[in-house]
């Protein structure tokens, strides 16, 4: 499964419901947002137990975006400004969500997250400048 446009990358969220379920989906970089499209399936039998769901995470809702390489997988760690941001996302806890990326998709994930982090930083700077203009 290739993602040649470099604007999306497959991910997994494991250990849902004490390891009995896993969410598999695609992370997409959108204008001032990340979009998670996923479905939940049984971790043992692979039977899909949910419809495809889409969650849009605006840069207003995100505190930070991190990318960490591992030997076999990489992790994308999303930190939100509130626990409510991830309330519809399985496997998240305390305003944090970890997406696991397979080794073969690591380069694309790193590129997308690098771009997303730059856009998030620019967004926060714009907000700060807008706040200072209102005060000045």
Describe this structure in words.
- This protein is an alpha+beta fold.
- The protein has one domain (9-135): PH-domain like, CATH 2.30.29.
- Helices cover 22% and strands 43% of the residues.
- The protein is built from one helix and seven strands.
- The strands form two sheets. The protein has a four-stranded antiparallel beta sheet with strand order 1-2-3-4, with helices on one face. It has a three-stranded antiparallel beta sheet with strand order 5-6-7, covered by helices on one side.
- A hairpin with a 4-residue loop joins strand 1 (8-16) and strand 2 (21-30).
- The radius of gyration is 16 Å and the shape is globular.
- Mean pLDDT is 89; it is low at 1-5.
